[in-house]
Design brief:
Blueprint: H1 8-20, H2 23-30, H3 34-48, E1 53-56, E2 59-62, H4 64-89, E3 95-102, H5 107-115, E4 124-131, H6 133-141, E5 147-150, E6 163-176, H7 178-184, E7 196-200, H8 207-216, E8 222-227, H9 230-238, E9 244-247, H10 251-258, E10 261-277, H11 285-295
Helix pairs in contact: 1-2, 1-3, 1-4, 2-3
Length: 302
């Protein structure tokens, strides 16, 4: 016996109720009577043959069936929003590229990667979102983003259907404001004992490599600060509050924009840069252009 096709208006009301956490707020957002939303929700639960919500205090929470339905509703309506954006963009001469940028990725590297899109024959409208790595992967899996630029590959065993593409790697250099770089450049790296350092936090993919390098050279730095956000770390570095690590590929930009000079090279430590897509093969023409430019040496060490 065939089932009745899903009523997508009912499903949309369910989606809004789940987002708002109550029928009252959902009705206000939808501009409908509370009774109307409640009735449509009941009809959807009857069609599914399962309860989608349970009451916890004043708030509605999803049942197991509700969470499963919500995962599909998210994809359906987020794709619907993207379809509308694509239709709106069809009247424009620019192709839209939604990019997620990991907060740990050096912004100079992100700029070097994305700068390529400004030089294409096809005009590109960049929409950049910065967030934590895990949040960006979730948005990518839901097709809210076209690509994620980050400093780490997708972990093995993930249930998300997203795929890593190694863009490039760069050896690291230690840099600092002119007064610091002059002080610690001589007899590098032995000179770094007790030197003030600004480091990424321990959940950053680069931090274990840095700690291992310090250990192998017998260096105990004076850690002035630890930062999740690379841009904030660079801001503190520009103020001369500590030495910091940066990819050699970005050293010229660091010199121009932050006034930081290279103290010494760290060839044993490399940072990797990845593009993560929700397809095994990247199909977006602007992302293909980024890959092509990278392979032709746009991120080569200076």
């Amino acid at each position: 016996m065939s089932k009745t096709p899903t009523n997508f208006r009912h499903l949309y009301y369910f989606w809004v109720v789940a987002k708002e956490g109550s029928i009252t707020r959902a009705a206000e957002r939808l501009g409908l009577a509370i009774q109307t939303v409640s009735t449509q929700l009941t009809l959807l639960e009857q069609a599914f043959g399962k309860a989608l919500f349970t009451q916890q205090g004043r708030r509605l929470t999803l049942t197991e069936a509700g969470r499963l339905a919500m995962s599909y509703a998210d994809q359906i309506f987020l794709l619907g929003e993207q379809m509308q954006e694509a239709l709106d963009a069809s009247d424009s001469s620019r192709i839209r590229l939604a990019v997620g940028i990991s907060d740990s990725l050096p912004k100079f590297i992100a700029y070097r990667l994305l700068e390529v899109t400004t030089q294409l024959d096809m005009p590109v409208r960049l929409v950049c979102h910065e967030d934590e790595y895990e949040s960006l992967l979730g948005d990518l899996a839901l097709h809210k983003l076209d690509v994620v630029l980050t400093d780490r590959a997708v972990p093995t065993g993930t249930t998300l259907r997203v795929f890593s593409h190694l863009l490039s790697e760069s050896e690291m250099v230690v840099v600092g404001a002119p007064n610091l770089s002059k002080t610690y450049r001589k007899d590098f790296p032995a000179s770094l004992k007790n030197a003030p350092f600004l480091l990424p936090t321990r959940n950053n993919a680069l931090r274990p490599k840095i700690d291992d390098w310090f250990e192998r050279h017998g260096i105990r730095p004076d850690v002035v600060g630890e930062f999740e956000d690379n841009a904030l770390l660079n801001t503190f570095g520009r103020r001369g509050l500590g030495l910091f690590f940066t990819p050699a590929a970005a050293a010229a930009d660091i010199k121009v924009q932050l006034g930081a000079d290279v103290v010494g090279r760290v060839p044993e430590v490399h940072e990797h840069f990845y593009a993560i897509s929700n397809e095994r093969k990247i199909k977006h023409p602007a992302v293909e252009a980024i890959l092509s430019a990278v392979h032709s040496g746009v991120l080569a060490d200076g």
